Amino acid sequence: MEQHTIADEIRELAQERDAVIIAHNYQRGEVQDVADFVGDSLGLARQAARTPASVIVFAGVHFMAETAKILSPFKTVLMPEPRAGCPMADMMTATDLAAWRKANPGVPVVTYVNSTAAVKALTDVCVTSANAVDVVRSLGAPKVLFGPDRNLASWVARSLPDVEIIPWDGFCPTHEQVSAEQLAQEQARHPNAEVIAHPECRPEVVDMADAVLSTSQMLCHVATSSAEEFIVVTEEGLLHGLAKAAPGKRFLNLEPRMFCPNMKVTTIEKVRDCLRDMSGEIVVTEDVRLAALASVEKMIAIG
Ligand code: CIZ
Ligand code: SF4
After folding, report:
1. Which CATH architecture has domain 89-172+288-302?
2. Ligand 2 atom, smallest distance to 175 CA
3. I need a labelling partner for 7 at 20 to 30 A (CA). Which of 20, 106, 222, 270 fits?
4. CA of 286 relative to ligand 2 center, distance in Å
5. pLDDT band at 303 (very low <50, low <70, confident <90, very high)
6. What are phi and psi of 58, to 5 degrees?
7. Ligand 1: distance of its center to the CA of 2 in Å?
C-alpha cells in the first residue's frame, strides 16, 4: 500500500480549508515542493491575490506575509511560523523612518519591499531588488532617501550616478557575511563558472559578479545563459529552484553556505499544523494597510 505522506496530508487540508500555499525561493526544498507557487515576495503576494482561495498560507518571513495581506484584505493570511522575521526589515522602524523623513523634508522616500507594513505606510514608493534601479530612475528626483538596505542603495547609486541616494544603514546578515576573498576563492576553484549575485551583497562582492540579479531574475537567467556552471551568491534555498529551472546545469553556493535562519524555521510539519489549526494569522490595521498599499501600487504602476 502506498504511504500517506505529510505532503498528501497538506494537499488534502489545503483543499478542505480553501487555501493556497505559497513558498519563498529561500524556503526548505520540501516546503517549496508542497507549495502551489514558489517565487519572490512580491510575485507571490500578487499571485495569491489573484487566486480564488480564501486562505493564503505564506511560508516565508513576516514582512512577506504582511505584503500578501496588504494586497488581499479579505483573505485570511496565515504563517506556519509567525516568529520568522527579517533582521533587515527590523533595522528600520516606522519611528526611525518618520524622524528621517522629518529631517529631510521634500525628499522622496524609496523603500525596499523587505520592510514592515508600518514602514511601507510611510513610504512614497516601494521597490524590489529587480526593479529598484528603474523605479528610482523613473522618479526623476535629484535626491532620494533609500532604506532599509544600504547595499541595494549602493547598487542603485552606482547604477544611477546622477541621483544622490541617501542610504539607511540596514543590511541582510546572510548576504552581508560574504566577503570578496571568499568569492575569489570559489572563483579560483571554478574558473568557468558564471557568478550571479544578489544586490543585497556588499558592493565589493556585487562588483565581482557577472550579473547582479534578484531571485526571480536568477531563475530566468540560468535557463537562457550559455554557462553550464554558476556560483550563486544568495541564500542557498534558491538552489532548489535553480536546479529545476535549468536541469543538468551545476549550481554552487559559497562555503560556508549562505543560510538565513529565519527562512529555515518553517518546516513541512509547521505548514501542516498551520492548515490543521488555522493558526498564525497575520493582521495589518486598515489605516496602515491602505497607506502601505499606495506605495506598493505606485511601484507596480511604474512597472
Ligand atoms: O523580494 C524577495 O523575495 C527577496 C527577499 C529577494 C529577491 O531577490 O527576490
Ligand atoms: Fe531578511 Fe536576509 Fe533572511 Fe531575506 S535572507 S529574510 S533579507 S535576513
Report:
1. 3-Layer(aba) Sandwich (3.40)
2. 2
3. 222
4. 26
5. confident
6. -105, 110
7. 37
Pick from 240, 241, 257, 271: nearest CA to 84: 271
Is the pTM higher than 0.85? yes
What digits encode the pLDDT tens for the residues 232-276? 999 999 999 999 999 999 999 998 999 999 999 999 999 999 999
Q: pLDDT tens digits for 10-55? A: 999 999 999 999 999 999 999 999 999 999 999 999 999 999 999 9
Q: 3-85+263-283 adopts what CATH topology?
A: Rossmann fold (3.40.50)
- Residue 1, pLDDT score: 63
How far apart, in whole angstroms, are the C-alpha atoms of residue 90 and residue 85?
A: 8
Closest atom of ligand 1 to CA, residue 218 = 8
**24 DSSP β-pair partners:** 39
Closest residue to atom 6 of ligand 2, CA basis: 86
Ligand 2: residues with CB < 6 A are 26, 61, 86-88, 114, 172-174, 235, 260, 262-263
The CATH code of the domain at 178-257 is 3.40.50.10800
CATH 3.40.50.10800 residue ranges of the chain are: 3-85+263-283, 89-172+288-302, 178-257
Q: Which atom of ligand 1 is nearest to the CA of 129?
A: 8
Alpha-helix runs per DSSP H in 235-285: 238-245, 261-264, 268-277
Copy the grid coordinates of residue 160. 544611477
